[in-house]
Design a protein that fits this description.
two-stranded antiparallel sheet; 4 strands; alpha+beta; single chain; two-stranded antiparallel ribbon; Alpha-Beta Plaits
Length: about 100
């Protein structure tokens, strides 16, 4: 039988402006179709959650811990929060259509 006291001791936390920012493990990311297939994100992911698929990289939802370490390294800014993915794809399609119709 397991008791709450068997789960260990929580590390002390600091508060204030110099306190470390805890990763948001409930947030996961997805790579939009803006991906340039450069592979930088795969290299930067500490969890090995990113892999190459056909002409684009993909994030495995079950392995992404939401740390976001890959996000600032994407030159195409294609890595977005899952919650904002639909809006990002809508804007991408809208931009592509505008370019096609004006050119």
């Amino acid at each position: 039988m397991r008791h709450d006291s068997d789960q260990g001791v929580r590390a002390p936390t600091r508060s204030g402006p110099d306190a470390p920012v805890a990763p948001n493990y409930s947030q996961s990311y997805i790579i939009s179709s803006d991906c340039m297939d450069c592979g930088v994100c795969e290299f930067m992911c500490p969890e090995g959650a990113i892999f190459e698929a056909k002409r684009q990289f993909v994030i495995r939802k079950d392995r992404c811990n939401g740390c976001g370490l890959c996000v600032p390294y994407c030159p195409a800014r294609a890595i977005v929060a899952r919650s904002g993915f639909k809006e990002r794809q809508r804007r991408t399609v809208q931009n592509l259509l505008s370019e096609a119709l004006s050119g």
